[in-house]
Amino acid sequence: MNLVQLIERSINQRKLSSILTVANVALGMMLVCAILVGRREVDEKYRSQSRGFELVVGPTGSTLQLVLNAIYHVDQSQGLLPYAVLEQLREQPEYVRLAVPYALGDSYRGYRVVATDEDLFSKHFPLPAGEGREKLASGRPFVCDPAALKDALDDLRAGRVGTHEEAGEEGEDHDHDHDHDHDHDHGGARAEAVLGATVAARLGLELGDHIEPSHNVEGAIAHAGHHAWEVVGILRETGTPIDRVVFINLDSFYRIPEHAGGLIPGSNEPGLSSVLLFGRGAFAKLRLYGALRNRSDLQVADVATEIHKLLDLVGGLREFFLVMAWLVVVTGVMSIMVAIYNTMNERRREIAIMRALGARRRRILCVIVGEAVALGGTGALVGTLLGHGLLWLARSRVESFAGLRLDPGRLLPEEILAAGAVILVSALAGLVPAMKAYRTDVARNLAPLS
């Protein structure tokens, strides 16, 4: 009988004990792999998805929350930023390359609706890469008419929002005729939408379809009147939170009566949720950041700095959980030593017979250590598979909560090293009972049982 057969026979003789021992090791290894892969994925995804974004300007509050809301499209908007801030920024072309407004407040079947203008399709806006139609998988960019936007802002300031809608509500029984460009006219503003790739795929939406968002991102409430947007474009897939966003033109957004409350408290100034700001080089960015930080009516966040702070904030907690997971692994490996050691008394006669039949001490030692390695290696393998299975089960939850798309099929070098460490430590743990077997007295253990 060769060495592998001896190890297999030894494990099969103590099947229940072996299964429990492997389960102990696998549980710890599952946690280690899930944490290692999750940590790497979170770090890389958060950094890569924010790459290209520079500054976010918004209402006073938490700078981290501002970045999460504007870049990752999670959490609630902190309030309103005066629309005049956008106009002021655009009056500094020597420093400002691009200023993209975001106005939040609506959702469509669980997906966030963001109102913005055509600067979303500028080549300087990082996601998706390209310019104009290059950013789209199909269709075209929406049209945000400056004249219609100005009229909408003037009406909002004068309290006239809703008058156009009321005039048109008599004809609400139309059947969404797709043959006319202005069927869903919002007071002169064409209501058009461009969808993220995930939104289009999961909701089965195509060019020419019409969507009717609801008021509020959470606890959606239907708008009082009929307000539908025509899908004119679908963005290329980016693997970022933008894939889960519905973008509409800003002029149509301000025509919704429920958005008439979107005025800065105590003024008649329309509000924005945030402005994504891109400077003309590093010096211009620093100049803008310094100037905006001194203003009391708003706050500015450096995207790279905030993401670094976020990862530092959660880094300590992740290291703590990783240490706890490794302790579970060590406990599992120690259980291998205990389980094998506790069988040595009942295996003394078996070992003595093997010795009498010509088996050398070294072979006996290799059988015991090999058994420990087999149990540890099996636990490491099963734990690795379970860890990736855990990530696969959690990926949809993580994507909806944090906007991150995990890759459960990714095997990291750290996992291979971790599995190797488990096997090595298992071998060391097996040396303790192996040395006891090595010193087994053949004559004494072959004596007839009394």
Structure report:
By secondary structure, the protein is an alpha+beta fold. It is 51% helix and 14% strand. It is built from 14 helices and 15 strands. Strands 1, 3, 4, 5, 8, 9, 10, 11, 12, 14 and 15 form an eleven-stranded mixed sheet that branches. Mean pLDDT is 82; it is low at 163-188.
Brief account:
This protein is α+β, with helices and mostly antiparallel strands and 450 residues long. The protein contains 14 helices and 15 strands.
Distance between the termini: 30 Å
Structural class: alpha+beta
- What's the helical proportion of residues? 40-55%
Query: How would you name the oligomeric state of the polypeptide chains in this document?
Result: single chain
Work out the number of β strands. 15
Order of helix and strand elements from N to C terminus: HHEHEHEEEHHEEEHEEEEHEEHEHHHHH
- What percent strand? 5-15%
Q: Average the pLDDT over all residues and give the rounded result.
A: 82
Layout of helices and strands, plus pairs?
Blueprint: H1 3-13, H2 15-50, E1 55-58, H3 63-71, E2 81-82, H4 83-90, E3 96-108, E4 111-116, E5 136-139, H5 146-158, H6 163-168, E6 185-186, E7 189-190, E8 192-195, H7 197-203, E9 210-211, E10 214-215, E11 229-235, E12 245-249, H8 250-253, E13 271-272, E14 274-279, H9 282-293, E15 299-302, H10 303-341, H11 344-356, H12 361-402, H13 413-438, H14 442-446
Parallel strand pairs: 4-12, 8-11
Antiparallel strand pairs: 1-14, 1-15, 2-13, 3-4, 3-10, 3-14, 5-11, 6-7, 8-12, 9-11
